[in-house]
Amino acid sequence: MLLFHQWFYEVDFWTFKVMWAGCIVFVFIELYCLYRSVRYERDELWGTYSDGPVSERSAWTRGIAYYRLAFALFVIARIALGDPMLLTLTMSTNFMVAVFPLLIVQRRRSRWGGSIVLGWFVIVGTLFTFAPRIGYWTQAAAVFNEPWYFFLGAVAVVGAVWNVVATARLPGKTAQNAPEPALRPMP
Questions:
Q1: What is the pLDDT tens value at each position of the chain, 187 positions in all?
Q2: What contacts 22, CB < 8 A, 6 or more positions away?
Q3: SS3 21
Q4: Whole-prediction pTM value?
Q5: For site-directed labelling of 50, which of 5, 42, 125, 179 has its Cα 20 to 30 A away?
């Protein structure tokens, strides 16, 4: 919402207008996911940092604190990288999608909540995001046509490949090893 004037009036290119609307929708999706995480996954997400069960209040406090931290980091990245369009936001999302599922798979020691097919799509998407000269962002802005960006991409590709390999090594999904459903009907 903060970049509305810049994206609609200064840049005035349809791609950024659509991206701005997508960012607004994404914020509401994130808030809904935060609500579901606080409601149903708080012990799994934050339980390792607590001595007992995590209360809803504690989970909301932590979730909101993480959002504030992320917002501050994006503002800092925007200034430090000279990225006034905040394109780092979309690139960093791809990095997190490539790397963080591996951490979850390793902690759960189960294929539940993960997908090998989705992992392959993440690998392809990560390659198209970070590839030198042919990558989407390297063509969109000069700030991404730098060695630090390619190094970050290499880390993301390694994480995405490692996630597929680690998931493939785990036992398949069966009714016997099914966890309690994370998505429950809303009351």
A1: 677 888 788 878 787 788 788 888 888 988 998 998 899 888 888 887 778 888 999 999 999 998 899 888 878 877 877 777 677 777 777 888 888 887 777 777 777 767 788 889 989 988 888 888 777 777 777 777 888 888 988 999 999 999 899 888 887 766 665 666 555 555 5
A2: none
A3: helix
A4: 0.64
A5: 179
